[in-house]
Amino acid sequence: LPTTANYIVVSSLMAPVIVTVGAQSGLVVPLIAVHMFVFYFGILADDTPPVGLAAYAAAAISRGDPIKTGVQGFAYDIRTALLPFLFIFNTDLLLIDVGPLQAVFVFIISLIAMLLFAAATQGYFIAKSRKWETVMLLLIAFMLFRPGFFLDQIEPPYITESGAAGLELMQTVDEGEDLRLVIEGPDFDTGRVRPVTIEFPGVPGDAEAALSAQGLTVFEEEGRLVLEEPFPGTPQFETLGTEYDFYGDNPVVIARVQVPNERLPKEIFFIPALLLLAGIVMIQRPRATKPPF
Question: What is the DSSP string of 109-174?
Fold first, then answer.
């Protein structure tokens, strides 16, 4: 498909699915990142099977087999196919909520990470890489692309509470911070209890105001925060009102309340990554047939 038609198709068919699946898994992704994710793969489909239109064009020029050309193109593109997953989990790569100076920093770090990833997948950096060096280059590239993963293993990204303690936690949100609510309730169609995560701006010291702004009404029942059905036209009606059965045997409840945790900046992991990179450079430099720099 042409680029514009490609975007229209994948954004209308796939973007809502990614948003829904992500919300059910606790992953709230900015909509622009989701659209970039599906659009990226829509474009990538042109030179990989089973679509592979570009592979047929290339095979006609090279007089080769189009299927083999497509498979070879896929082998080259597999490293490229990983990039959308990286910016889904690290939206800094799309410069979302990033200032000018931080944007320059992100650009430099991303450039280094892409260089290292390409070097690892090709098996050659300054010199031909040994297997363990390739693994280390992949690890360094991942640390630069996704430093938040390692920080999450040390400190949780959110403080989590439930029940009445969850309401108290909502009061502690700072100005400009978002609240995350994990909602659980019976699906409107199947009746199965399933979760969904919603995110919206908090109001410091006033949990009721933050909930009311989203059209949410909550009351306590047996230690649980039970939700009433949001009215049509309110911000969360499409997410909750049309998806959950508010009048079934099982109530729709706020299972968990989450607020951002104050922790170290994730960029702290750039330091060990760059130190490891310096070590790889020192090890490979004597083996280089030509001075790399």
Answer: HHHHHHHHHHHHHHTBSSSBPPHHHHHHHHHHHHHHH-HHHHHHHHS-SEEEE-THHHHHHHHTPP
Distances (CA, A) of 194 to 202, 218, 244: 24, 19, 9
pLDDT band at 291 (very low <50, low <70, confident <90, very high): low
Count CA atoms closer than 13 A to 121's CA, side-chain side.
15
Mention every residue, 6+ apart, whose C-beta is less than 8 A from residue 62: 69
- The β-bridge relationship of strands 178-186 and 253-260 is antiparallel
Residues 205-226: pLDDT tens digits? 888 899 999 999 998 888 889 9
Cross-strand partners of 194 = 185
Band (92; pLDDT cuts 50, 70, 90): confident
Task: Judge whether 204 and 194 are in contact, CB under 8 Å.
Answer: no
Q: According to the model, what pLDDT value does residue 292 have?
A: 54
Q: 159: closest CA among 141, 129, 179?
A: 179
Domain range list for the chain: 1-89, 90-155+263-293, 159-260
Mean pLDDT of all residues belonging to the chain: 87
